[in-house]
Amino acid sequence: MTAYLDVVGYAGDGSVNLPDSAVSSPEILDEPGLSGNVTPADILLTQGATTMQDLVTTIITIPADGYIMVSAGATMEASGTSKASQIYLQIDETAGGNIVSPYFVMSGSGDHDTPSSRHYLSMSVERVYFKSAGTYEFRLEAKASPDNGSGAETRMQRPHITAIYLPTAYGQINASN
Question: How much is the average pLDDT of 145-173?
Fold first, then answer.
């Protein structure tokens, strides 16, 4: 008689070896998946850039059609001479490009800044996608406001991104992406 599960190793060592084909894609269709990444170093944004700048990316493979919830964030460190010290932050699938409404957030001190001050603000953004089975790359990207001026300096500290696959949705989701 063949057993469904073979325990290999010494008794009590806690090891179980499963063959590569033990769990296949059809068997995990109802399970969520998770992917994430963090950049430990600060990233200096290019002042006056015309496109978004990548901060961190993550890749997730999903076994069937479903939703991918992507969340990301970083701490903005800003200083400058124009009193703006503002930044745009968004999640996107393609490198570069422009700010995509309504998926971006903006933060900063606006016209209430003291030029020599240094500000730290936590920023976060989320986005939900409906996708077919396959592999997808998502990126957290940022752009310093053109109103910051040439003497401004904007850094993003510890940018991070997480993607979670959800095979079903409860409630209503706009899947126009």
Answer: 80
